[in-house]
Records
---
Amino acid sequence: MGETWKKFGSDIRLDRFGDVIFTDDGDLEVINGGALVAQDLRTEVMLIPGSCFWAPSFGRGLEDALQGPDSFDVEALLRTAALGDERVFFDSIRTKRLDDGSYLLSFRLFEDVEPIELYFDLKDRYVD
């Protein structure tokens, strides 16, 4: 997977709260490959639509949707976000509500065998 960044690009690494991560030297930490795809999906799911002026339709607004009056299917939102990413193998997408109330989204990239797993703990606003 040494050439994966050529397919998926690279970006600035964000921590689980969406803040920029710096190296010990003070440089911005860079991310690529499957970790980048996971970060992109995590950001899309949590971001409120319209909050990025350069991409107003980007975002799924999971946190806002949970505050609304209607019942809401978190698993459907997670699946939809993963299905919308062309880097994700659509047949590999799995979602599950865990016993502690958090949610799991797992998926594979086209050339990967091992799944990537994202956990969404909505009551603590935590994504890992």
---
Amino acid sequence: MSAKAVTATIEAFERAESSASPRPLAFYVALNSVPILEEETARAYLAGLGSRHWRVIVGCLQSIGAWARFPGLFLPRLLELLDHQKEAVWLETAKVLGVYGSQAEAAVPKLAARLPLCDLMAAKTILWTLCAIPAGRPAAYGFLLGYLRASAAGELWTASHLVKPTTYSPEGDTCYHAGHIGVVVQMLTSLDDQSDEIRRDISALFRLSSWGTQKDSRRGAQGELMPVMIAFGCPHDQDGVLAVLEKYQANGGSYHSRTARQLLYLHPDIWSDEQLARLKELASS
């Protein structure tokens, strides 16, 4: 019954898409209401992935990603859809591949190759997918660290992309931009299997005396990098971390105390007696 319901919904969806005023939302809801528990139902969704209407494909992809079953059936077609000309299709495909995790290892080369062609929003989606696939994490780490290093150097392409475009022209990018450091660091903290390497590289960036151009020195970059210190520890940067938190304390707010409490809870043994006293004072202030 489920397979027949899916097939009927897809056929109705395709007819609507061929009409003058398609209304996809109702069909998305209908497709997502049918669970993918049996192979017959899965094959009905697989047939929908071959539709000539991109919204039909996206609707099927959303359902497939919600259940993440039958990888042997879906993954070959998902790899093909990464080459789809419609961005909405290959982006939704990337999300689904992330849900399959280690089973989607074969998608890593295609996903990595997409990144220099992506704008900011698309790159975020693909990088999160690479972070979710164990075999994709080294590639994700390389791209994310590359962004931070380029941002620290003031390279202009960081204004509109997370990965340097294959063909880049600085036209239109007139100033340094570091607004995505927080997003990049959030992704890095999900790569706990590379924590030692990440901690080493972020420590080097944390110690920089300036960030970006002379005009935009630092721009709060140390604070943006702090989640890595919280997640993985800072065994060689304790004084630097304390100095940053004391600067936040002087400016008011609660960031310094909240961060100090997290560091005390997660990494209580990396501080000297003098550092520990300073950290406890920050936590209680």
---
Amino acid sequence: MASLSFEGETHGEIVLKVRRWLASLDESPEGSLTAVEAIEQGAELTKDALRIIAAAA
């Protein structure tokens, strides 16, 4: 049985990750992000990196 899970510290983070995953299922061509999507993805990467750094400290 397949499973899928999302992790986040807040409900909003989880919703954002689910929406991003659902959007990735669309048939839009790879590499075509809107400016807002690019900023959101960059922010998520930054948050994830800071969590990793904090956990290692």
---
Amino acid sequence: MIVWLVGTVRSSCPTPPTPSRRTRTSSVLDRAAASCDCDCEAATMDQSTAKPIRCRDPSFSFSATFTVNKYTLNLTWRDLGQPPWLALVVAPPLAPRDHHAAAVSKAPGQPLEMVEVEVAPPRAHEVRVKIVCTSLCHTDLTFWRMKDFPAMFPSILGHEAVGVVESVGDHVEEVAAGDTVVPVFLPQCGRCADCLSPRSNICSVLAHRPGLMPRDGTTRFSLAATGEPVHGFLSVSSFAEYTVVDVAHVVRLGGGDALPPEMACLLSCGVSTGVGAAWKVAAVEPGSTVAVFGLGTVGLAVAQGSKMRGAKRIIGVDLNPDKFEIGKRLGVTDFINPNDTGEKNVTEVIKEMTGGGADYSFECIGSTSVMAEAFESSRMGWGKTIILGTDAGKAPVSISSSAIKRGRSVTGALLGGIKPKDDIPVLAQKCMDKELELDEFVTHRMGFDDINRAFDLLAQGNCLRCIIWMDGAEQKKTSS
């Protein structure tokens, strides 16, 4: 198939050509189609201005992708080398556009709809990833139920996943097609003051844009049937067969490539948040006491991280007694069910158990009342409270100023204070070395078509992490 192309040309010379100021209306590119300011000998001259107008380098070419109805044309232009500068375009047979399955959230609290979406190619600084498996986090559940901004509809939720790089855009060098990567909601550009500082993991260059790509504020998804834009989620959107993420949001596993995909998947959010908070935010010390409010994935990861750092007493607080057994295996030494404390509240029980309060208190639920309770359970003088849960209501937390003046402190963290590109590979290696146990966190496995059942299980408190395999082929067992 041969067609004539009207457009801007690109040269391989050191200085990129600048487009002609004249509007191109002809199917023939004349001598002013592109000018060249470089000093290469291959440049031709414009007789009227005595200036070089473009290179005659043999590799001089242009390529572009055009969308026509339901098909994509990948076009390659090559200079014929003779005036009047004919533009020869070689187009392969029409190829179907990139339509892939996605579980789209169209209304608050309503079942996700499995539909075909168009996934755009990656732009500059972006990576397109084929999702291998994903998991469901309480943050997904929170935003799925949320009726107001920052929740946006329709959208593709999901932010815990592992995948394989399918293609990359311009200026992407740290990953390539075929690499195994973990997409993460927290970026690490590696250049800003915050990324370079050991005191922060909040990138100051790539601010979060709800539902949109961080650099240009657009989306890479649209409904295949109508073309309606579909919002992303936390810069990941893993409830789709393919997704596009900024390169600052992907971590190449490197030495942890042999880690099973479902284990790597857990490192993209929940487990890294809990272990990181114990190690980096609290800096739990040997012999210390720890109180963990909420024994979900994050809370249990806090317990395991605290145990690895030598905490002598780890108190787990949860309304579900079914979590106590797994908690024991991951390091929890004592359990409190708020329904079984009688006339005493949880704070009083913890102070009695620890002789004044916990050295470190972690809130892993997302409830403002529990945040205040966790703070009151910390020890006067040096007790530190770490807030990890996501509060959908944005209600203020009530904390006594006199307690703060007596030495207590409270802080929070995203992704447990870790720097994704630096620390996730370290955690992956610890998993490979059997220092970090992840098998206990996976309670269910199912195929992509069953994703709504995974939402039901998590909403009912009947699972920790449900691994959702995109093709279903890797399911080895399914717990009900």
